[in-house]
Amino acid sequence: MDIKQWEDKNLSHFSYAVLSESEKKVVLIDPARNPQPYYDYAKQHGAQIVAVIETHPHADFVSSHLEIAEVTGAIIYVSKLVHAQYPHQTFDEGDQIAIGKIRLSAINTPGHSPDSISVKLEHEDKIEAIFTGDTLFIGDCGRPDLREGAGNIKATRHDLAKQMYYSLREKLATLPGETKVYPAHGAGTLCGKSLSKAHSSTIAAERKTNWSLQEATEEEFVTNLLTDQPFVPLYFPYDVELNRKGAPAFNQSIKKVNIAGEISNEESAQRLNPALWMIDARKADTYKKGHLPHSINLMEEGKFETWLGSIIKPGEKFYLGGESETQLKNLIARTAAIGYEEQIEAAFVINYGQQHAAEFNLNTFKAQQENYTIIDVRNPSEVKEGKPFSNSLSIPLAEVRERVGEIPTDKPLVVHCAGGYRSAAASSLLQSTLNGKAIVFDLGEAVKAF
């Protein structure tokens, strides 16, 4: 038997393959949008993919379960509570998949969602591992507030938090201590709030160190779980439904995206629809020297997918710009990871821009901070830990587009985050939206000096 883990660092997502070496068969758990790594793994071992298990309809990424089933003939297993709209076999408490000496059993573990399951793996009748989806993470548990407006089953965060309390204690913590824990996410995901950077753990280790498994009343647990959860990106409800329906094939879908001619002068820029946002993924320094109107500087480095799906709405068309065709192809694939590839009106290499970011004088700012309106675009949990500027206006990046009207324009604006990525996005968005009503400066990496 072999267990293979893949990590998509951009989305902090873990997916898995369980290989029966004797039977030459593979079962996949929570696969990512691009199925090629799973095909390569099966080919490497001379094995056939026979099953795909979805622990729940994911909110933060798009799964390739339907495509894999159509290509390989594998059966998709998912809880009956999902009411999946693709061919599948229900997989709930008491249901098993047996392959050689391997037995995979479903455990209904509601809490993150009403339809969440965990998958217990036994080899030669010994419990070896538990694939916990978004129920139990390393150091944390799944957030319970994503299904109040998504999926076929709506549930309040309070009710799901109560269900999480019992799923953790009665279903997972009771497993043997040496059972390996394989979650669907690691540190950096928005599906939890305080995950470890570790890729796996054991039930015994989690009993000792995971806050969500410590002794607490139901009421105490619910209060702790609901406190300080991160924001919910706009694309999350959309992805829940897309995963419940099944996404189109990855390669076929990204090949449909039009990589158009280079934008190198005013004539080529004029062919763009001025009503559509241009997501410009070039480095901030390059962007500031010259960019197109109605642009947002969302750099390739960092959580590109998360912020794209937090600023651009599901179904909203946009342009994608980059420094090379190679970069564009990579960004299109990353856009597809959240199911937004069909929203790309066209993609362009950008070597031109008639708009420029205002030059920022750091010394003047340090000496005369009262002459600026300072916008802090970090998340509320970060602001809670301390503000570099006591008089700043806090508007998280995910909310800037909708809250521009709250920002006074009688002074120049200085935008900051924790390191420069989010402030580049927010300052460019504000410059485009305010359209000259106020000068907008990006503090960028200089925030570290404060």
Structure summarized in a few sentences:
This protein has 450 residues and is an alpha/beta fold. It has 15 helices and 20 strands. Strands 1-2-3-4-5-6 form a six-stranded mixed β-sheet, with helices on one face. It has a six-stranded mixed β-sheet with strand order 7-8-9-10-11-12. It has a four-stranded parallel β-sheet with strand order 14-13-15-16.
Give a structural overview.
The structure is a single chain. The protein has helices at 36-44, 65-72, 157-172, 203-209, 218-226, 235-245, 250-255, 266-269, 284-289, 304-311, 325-336, 362-367, 380-385, 397-400, 421-434; strands spanning 2-8, 13-20, 25-29, 48-53, 75-78, 89-90, 96-99, 102-108, 117-123, 126-133, 180-183, 201-202, 277-280, 295-297, 318-322, 344-349, 373-376, 393-394, 413-416, 440-442. Helices cover 28% and strands 21% of the residues. It is globular and about 70 Å long. The longest helix is centred in the middle third of the chain and has 16 residues, at 157-172. The protein is an alpha/beta fold and 450 residues long. The mean pLDDT is 95. The chain has three domains: 2-239, Metallo-beta-lactamase, Chain A; 250-349, Oxidized Rhodanese, domain 1, CATH 3.40.250.10; 362-449, Rhodanese-like domain (Oxidized Rhodanese, domain 1). Helix 3 (157-172) crosses helix 5 (218-226). The chain contains 15 helices and 20 strands. A six-stranded mixed beta sheet has the order 1-2-3-4-5-6, covered by helices on one side. The protein has a six-stranded mixed beta sheet with strand order 7-8-9-10-11-12. Strands 14-13-15-16 form a four-stranded parallel beta sheet.
